[in-house]
Amino acid sequence: MTIASDGQSVGTAWWRGRALRRFARHRLAVTGTLLIVLLTLACVFGPLLLPYDELHIDLRARFSPPLTGDHYLGTDPLGRDLAARLLMAGRVSLLVGFAAMLLSTLIGVVIGIIAGYRGGWLGNALMRFTDAFLCFPQIFLLLALAAFIKPDPLMITIIIAATSWMEIARIVSAEIRSLRERDFVLAARMAGASHRWIMFRELLPNAIGAIIVAATLTVARAILIEAYISFLGYGIQPPLPSWGNMLNNAQQYLASAPWLAIIPGIAITLAVTSFNFIGDGLRDALDARSDLK
Amino acid sequence: MSARRLTVRDLSVAFRTEGQLVPVVHEVSFTLDAGETLAVVGESGSGKSVTSLAVMRLLPPPPRSALSGEILYHHDGQDLDLSRLSETRMRRIRGDRIAMIFQEPLTSLNPVLRVGQQITESIRCHRPVSAEEARRRAIELLDRVGITEPEARLDAYPHELSGGMRQRVMIAIALALEPDILIADEPTTALDVTVQAQILDLLRDIQEQSGMAILFITHNFGVVAEIADRTMVMYAGRVVEAGGAEAVLTRPMMPYTVGLMGSVPRIEWAGRHGEALGTIEGFVPDPAQMPAGCAFHPRCRHVRAGLCDQTVPVLEEASPAHSLRCLRWRELLEARR
Amino acid sequence: MSTALVETRGLKVHFPIRKSLFGAPGAMLRAVDDVSLSIAAGEVLGLVGESGSGKSTLGRAVMALERPTAGQVLFDSVDLASLDATALKPYRKRMQMVFQDPFSSLNPRMTVEESLALPLRFMAPDLGRAARRQRVEAALQRVGLGSSAVTRYPHEFSGGQRQRIGIARALIVEPDFIMADEPVSALDVSVQAQVLNLFARIQREMRLALLFVTHDLAVVGHVADRVAVMYLGRIVEIAETRQLFQQPRHPYTEALLSAAPDPVPGQGRARIRLEGEMPSPLSPPSGCPFRTRCRYAQTACAEIRPELQRLDGGHEVACLRNDLELTGALPAATLEERSRS
């Protein structure tokens, strides 16, 4: 009886190791990751290290430009330390962005899997439903919704999630539809597996790559959207700071105290572009898996 | 006396993977004369496709790949070393003097262009002819490769044609400029056996008429028997046996070739049960982890410790038209007598 | 009467091709068009055909993966189409499948153990984890792989090894019948031999009924007890292997045998070349589907559709002409062989 040597491994490491290495070679992605980590750490621990509390009002020091004395990033019209405000606001913006991503991913994945796996009229219906949602101009939908409900962070998160899940649903549906045809799915059917098993234990793990990429990009968009609606006055309301409402407050002072707008603007840009780079890097790292010889 | 078209000497190719240069083809040498077919046989990982891509200079550019050796194309009394030509000059030769056809026409043909366009594009790329002239020639070519109603077919898209017809279209494109050399990389592997027979007939026919030389890459010994004048067997990037097709197929000497020939089910054994096929133990080595000495020694039943695992065998001539790479071939031949 | 384990009677599988989203069905794709064959317990039936012949669809229909448009698929004399999903379950356990592509037949995100234990989870739910692990290791051993494979992922194995894992998965529930759909076509020559030997050994040891679908005549000649030749949705010839190769009675079989390349040059076999290609299953020719490419076609062939007729020795042919002397791929039966049969 010939025993095929089971000692040979075609790959030297587990697949995730390879993808990690590829990700590490993507310079922008690594930069993005570092920036996000730094930003998160700053927002979590920074306010504890700064000399001033973000609520501390000091009218004598109002409108101080950055790097004046203790106020590293200057002060706002009420003399509150901008650095402290920025980092506290960062907590809210990042948290809302992340939470919105989680919620929208959950919704999108469930709808996408069902639509992609079932196909037929249910799949079609779900996809048309998704398309309908996509047709609405997101900002208007957001503003309309925001006008009706109390704008606290939880509701904002829900609204953003409710208008961001469609992208993920489409991606997941497409992935599942192509995976559904593969032989291992048929093998699972032959093994007597239930539909639920096939959807969530066989197909979903294979779509994780695409989901992660989409989710990362969703965070970026969620942060941006939160900034939009807060800037327009319908999002996070003062006194709770968010990068968006900081921008709102800075509008009238663009000529006299531009740093009030520039600084939160830079923060938003950094966060959004970093997540975008991470998303790009992930996409390359996970896609290239297919050129395993 | 046939003109020599191609002389390849000590061709070596290495690919850069994960920072290292890994050799995948080692010092391969062969010649190709007008009107003859040389079959390059091997399994996956043997380096046969890479060899053909190297001749056409279709490998990824350095630093992702490294090529050494000579690829002499004999043309009009000149000897052009293809390995040293600039890309611009190579482009003039590719498709014009040396053409290539691939295994899967669905991916080698552009799915959004009509078939006629793809043929005329190839023609007009290399010759200053008018669109009508090119179209006329395309119809001629389609007819030549056995496509019925060529005028109508010109306007078809690749997916509208069957596998056999697509392959004929590929052959038509390849023949458009009457090349001296045709490189065919597994052109019939994806085709039904009856269509395969037709395509092989077509190639033989064209070769007889035009004196084209064919470098035919395959893993199927049956196809080699059908179409090749000479053959060379590749294993782990090296030529391990070469010679006249009949000699190599009926009297293989190198243990790998012997093993392979023994593992192919034959029509003549049909219906005979209980006879297991011969097998070769083990697996093809990873190019990055090539065994010391003879690359085949871990799988060879005639391995001799101390010899085969230490010395790399060279290609020796067992007879004028039959050479092989094995350290023990003389003893094994004696033992068989 | 036959002790057929698997049987099809007048099986038809037709797919409607819809022209427009709301329009009535247009053409019908007659993938399987009135097929009746049987496989006895422990027998290997080879099913040969080219692409477009419908052999894969037939294989799937036999596995109750395609709903028959007409006719029956019987397993142990029970019509599978009459069973609902629950009633079908105990039958699913007795019939398993081996797939063609070793690269897509295993879930890349599951370890070998998880993939192999899957059928046990659903078909033998009473087994505990340890018992499952035991059966997985036993199955791997049977196909010649060590138990260290259980924690590995499919991409760590070569094509041949993956195919072995696929076979192990099919065997783990100890079925009576296996449908192998081109199980060696995607493998290298030397690996093909290993897997074919494995199939032969396992089939013998476990007394499996096997439907071996392939396009490769040499392969089918090596594994099958009987061979059925399929063309455009219909079976045109069935015979015991050696008989089919020695003395084909259908022109298509003759052409297939003639076209199959043999690795020995200059054998002097008469080469018969077929013109054209297989017509589309959407619009098969009237009468005999092969008549458009048949050298022996007569006018009657366009009008009457030949049915499978039983000749001597279990040899069945669907051809109107019974006067043909066709060339086989093997020398004519020796007196010794004839006296044996």
Decide which structural class fits the backbone of chain B: alpha/beta
If helices are DSSP runs of H or I spanning 4 or more residues, what is the number of helices of chain C? 10
- Overall SS class of chain C: alpha/beta
Rg calc of chain B: 21 Å
What's the oligomerization state?
heterotrimer
Overall average pLDDT of chain B: 90
User: Of all protein chain pairs, which has the greatest interface, and how many residues does each chain bring to it?
Assistant: B-C, 47 and 48 residues
Give keywords.
heterotrimer, A: mainly alpha, elongated, B: about 325 residues, alpha/beta, eight-stranded mixed β-sheet, four-stranded antiparallel β-sheet, globular
Short note summarizing the structure:
Chain A is mostly helical and 293 residues long. In chain A, 70% of the residues lie in helices and 0% in strands.
Can you put this structure into words, describing what you see?
The complex is a heterotrimer of chains A (293), B (337) and C (341). By secondary structure, chain A is mostly helical. In chain A, helix 2 packs across helix 3. The longest helix of chain A has 37 residues. The N terminus of chain A is likely disordered. Chain B has 337 residues and is α/β, with parallel strands linked by helices. Helices cover 33% and strands 25% of the residues of chain B. Chain B has twelve helices and twelve strands. In chain B, helix 4 packs across helix 5 and helix 5 packs across helix 7. Chain B starts with a strand and ends with a helix. Helix content of chain C is 30%, strand content 22%. Chain C contains ten helices and twelve strands. An eight-stranded mixed beta sheet of chain C has the order 6-7-8-3-9-10-12-11, sandwiched between helices. Chain C has a four-stranded antiparallel beta sheet with strand order 2-1-4-5. Chain C starts with a strand and ends with a helix. Chains in contact: A-B, A-C, B-C. Chains B and C meet through helix 7, helix 8, helix 9, helix 10 and helix 11 of B and helix 6, helix 7, helix 8 and helix 9 of C.
